[in-house]
Amino acid sequence: MTQRDVVFPPGRQALYDRNHYSPAIRSNGFLFVSGQVGSREDGSPEPDLEAQVRRAFDNLNSILKAAGSRFDDVIDVTVFMVDPQSTFETIWKVVPEYWGQAPYPTLTAVGVTWLYGFDFEIKVIARQTEQANQ
Predict the structure, then answer these.
(1) Which residue ranges does UniProt annotate as crossing the membrane (predicted)?
(2) Is 0.85 surpassed by the pTM of this model?
(3) Strand partners, 36
(4) Res. 3: pLDDT tops 90
């Protein structure tokens, strides 16, 4: 079996080890990032929704940076929102702070009933530059 090329952001490996998954995997020029939530360092949810969304993006960006990428390299986004009818406006007020300029990545938004105590999760696929793969 081929060894997975795992990317760990600094300071959070214990959280991923405890939950038995990898934050991101490099494969064939792409970076597949696990869903990121607005968790504090200990894994607990950020209670304020806007702060939770910002922290989810910050957690995502730390993984992208560890892989030698940035949000501009993201090509596909999936977001999960608990109760999107009541949370969408608040969430989408924060997203442009991190999204960057057009052209934007593709997006799928999914309404869910449960996210392990969180209200927002973002998972992405990013292209890896030649420099990032070296």
Answers:
(1) none
(2) yes
(3) 122
(4) no
Tokens of 126: 């990013």
Total structural domains within the chain: 1
Domain that holds residue 79: 5-133
> Each residue of 61-80: pLDDT tens digit?
999 999 999 999 999 999 99
Identify the band that residue 12 occupies on the pLDDT scale cut at 50, 70 and 90.
confident
Q: Residue-wise over 74-109: b if at least 16 C-beta within 10 A, else e?
A: beebebbbbebeebeebbeebbeeebeeeeebeeee
End-to-end CA distance of the chain: 22
CATH number for the domain spanning 48: value is 3.30.1330.40
